[in-house]
Design a protein that fits this description.
four-stranded parallel sheet; single chain; five-stranded parallel sheet; binds aspartic acid; Rossmann fold; 358 residues; 2 domains; alpha/beta
Length: 358
Amino acid sequence: MPLLGRHILSSEQFERGDLDQLFALADRLRPAARGLASCRVLEGAVLASLFFEPSTRTRLSFESAFAKLGGSVISTSSGDATSVSKGESLADTSRVVSGYSDVLVVRHPAEPALREFAGATRVPVINGGNGAGEHPTQALLDLYTLERECARLGTPLDGRRIALVGDLRHGRTVHSLVRLLSLYRDLTLVCVSPAALRMPADLLALCAARGHRVEETDRPDTGLRNADVVYATRLQRERLGGESPEYGEEFRITGALVDACCHEGTVLMHPLPRDTRPGAIDLDPDLDADPRLAVFRQTDGGVAVRMALFASVLGVAEEAVAALRPAGWYRPEQIGVQDAPFHRVRDLDGAGPEAAVR
Ligand code: ASP
């Protein structure tokens, strides 16, 4: 497996074949991700999860994925709780923690920090988000979700019209996602943002060089028109450094806007968190009962993708599939109270948990 023992720092390092292999493995491990099977292939292994920035999904789903593979987790969720606050270098921290663990997941507000971590150790380091740079594993789970949604709708991902909306300058998830999307064919990428928050030019050039159509607009009502996929993002206030770019009401992605511009099969995505406070300009909760909203299918799928990534990087992919055993504990049919029927555990796993587990 090409990912064996590798650091995972940028989505640049993936080829299309890696994605196919990883997603096929995620499909196989899905019953364990969903609590329908156990899979204790990493018993004795230790994940160190070091988060120097806030996180809910990334940290907990990485830790959940590792635990579901039978491994143990040690973690710190703030820079203040480590000796970095005493002046220790990231390289020293990395070298020390690598001696306690078999793989590291690191999130840091500074873009170069992940390379510093990786430069100090041979234990694989996985990027859980480096400043406004990249978030490669979020992109992997986004793409995994997108492929599954396209399969459900009976359309290939190649040839789709994909609107990326919001703070495209600072949003690390879209930076990583665009790199992965560029590996597909004949896409139209519509970048929808205020002028001050445009997608970096090098990423636009990469997509154009790989034969995709790239459009830019500052008007969501134009950008969302006929979109097959809408990937909304949050204004990254923590990265604005005193700037206050115009970010008008028109960037609130509501049911009315989606109904006016999109079609029945449009897939609505967001890396989350979304700001749902009154007056916030983000993906609106009035879409929560809309079956086109795939955000919780994204988060659910993230566990399977991260399990597949750990199994690949640590060289136990085949063993993980062979180790699947039916689980006996209680699981509800639907995870969320508002979940549409296709959120249900059984539906997501095709013929049902028993068939999915050998
Ligand atoms: N959770 C994602 C990230 O860490 C998206 C966001 O924070 O807006 O980049």
